[in-house]
Task: inverse folding
């Protein structure tokens, strides 16, 4: 895993860069399937249970700017430790919640902590990895989170076999404690100490937003469309499977295989971005995801449905780390954390707003119309990347 800079190796920072993220992903993955069940046990309706689940995304969205301020002030290492500690406290609150509002508060805090944790990880890799290997590093970061989210439900299920529903939260607590301890063992980045000494006046968010408005209105907006497609596909696949008469076990298998493609492609995709430019991945990723969604309403049986889902998984897999990489490339060295906080806020709007748009179109028109509308976003994002994404990144 060496390239460009012969003195640097991703293996040399693997534990520091990817270990905490893997554990954090396992912790989140362990609780995602059971949050709604916990809400139901506390007497919540189906609608309220769904809202409580959505509080993770809402917490992350609302915390992007505070996360930038916290990380800029305290540094990546301490921010990660604090985020892991806050997540453990939030999990304990969920575990012992006696009312739905207590559970909702815990879920919201988990989302807020994840925003701090992920921003600190992205800033760490952007600073420490040479630009010639940046895409591979950030794609691997995205890949390890996906692997963690994949492993998490199995870890939670294993513990639930012995202590029922609380087992998922205990599995998550163990993973989050591990993420915090591993973060604690990582030495403070040298660049962080130098930056604190050099930057007497920290960058202001308003100035960063004003100075980089064009990037936020173009590439960040394209990233928001990408995030919307990714969020919606998790809803579209099971809904369309049910629409064409597939049972739940079959749908789960198809979804799992699609997810496995995601996990296999993150490093090759990063290598392509590093060697040939970001556009070589951004265009095919958006065209494949958009095209597969446009074809989804034409599928009426299992075979065609599987093929379309595999193409969608391919498009999503090669786009692993794409948003983080483009954001890192555009971020200014003197205000990197503040820039990435705003970047994440814009892209998270897509992740949160996409499913709302999909639901609205389904309610007014039809499921097929909603899928076609989301699929069209892929072609719009592809056009935006073609127009504004640099063909090559300066090494």
Result:
């Amino acid at each position: 895993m060496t390239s460009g800079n012969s003195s640097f190796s991703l293996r040399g920072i693997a534990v520091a860069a990817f270990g905490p993220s893997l554990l954090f992903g396992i912790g989140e993955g362990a609780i995602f399937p059971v949050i709604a069940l916990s809400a139901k046990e506390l007497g919540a309706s189906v609608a309220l249970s769904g809202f409580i689940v959505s509080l993770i995304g809402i917490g992350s969205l609302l915390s992007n700017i505070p996360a930038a301020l916290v990380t800029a002030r305290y540094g990546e290492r301490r921010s990660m430790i604090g985020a892991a500690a806050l997540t453990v406290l939030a999990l304990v609150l969920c575990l012992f919640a006696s009312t739905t509002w207590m559970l909702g508060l815990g879920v919201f805090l988990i989302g807020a902590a994840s925003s701090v944790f992920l921003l600190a990880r992205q800033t760490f890799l952007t600073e420490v990895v040479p630009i010639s290997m940046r895409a591979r590093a950030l794609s691997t970061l995205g890949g390890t989170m996906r692997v963690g989210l994949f492993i998490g439900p199995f870890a939670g299920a294993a513990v639930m076999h012995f202590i029922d529903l609380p087992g998922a939260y205990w599995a998550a607590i163990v993973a989050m404690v591990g993420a915090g301890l591993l973060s604690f063992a990582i030495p403070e980045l040298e660049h962080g100490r130098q930056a604190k000494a050099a930057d007497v006046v920290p960058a202001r968010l308003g100035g960063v937003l004003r100075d980089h408005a064009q990037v936020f209105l173009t590439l960040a907006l394209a990233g928001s469309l990408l995030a919307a497609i990714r969020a919606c596909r998790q809803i579209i696949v099971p809904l369309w499977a049910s629409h064409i008469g597939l049972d739940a076990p079959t749908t789960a298998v198809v979804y799992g295989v699609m997810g496995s493609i995601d996990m296999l492609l993150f490093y090759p995709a990063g290598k392509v971005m590093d060697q040939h430019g970001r556009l070589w991945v951004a265009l095919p990723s958006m065209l494949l995801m958009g095209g597969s969604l446009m074809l989804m309403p034409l599928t009426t049986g299992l075979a065609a449905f599987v093929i379309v889902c595999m193409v969608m998984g391919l498009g999503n897999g090669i786009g692993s780390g794409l948003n983080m990489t483009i954001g890192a490339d555009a971020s200014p060295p003197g205000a990197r954390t503040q820039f990435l906080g705003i970047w994440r806020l814009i892209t998270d709007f897509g992740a949160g707003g996409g499913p709302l748009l999909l639901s609205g179109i389904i309610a007014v028109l039809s499921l097929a119309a909603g899928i076609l509308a989301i699929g069209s976003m892929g072609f719009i994002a592809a056009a935006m990347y073609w127009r504004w994404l640099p063909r090559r990144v300066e090494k």
Q: What stands out?
A: Residues 1-6, 191-201 have pLDDT under 50 and may be disordered. The CA atoms of residues 74 and 172 lie 25 Å apart. Residues 16-182+189-197 form a domain with the Growth Hormone; Chain: A; fold (CATH 1.20.1250.20).
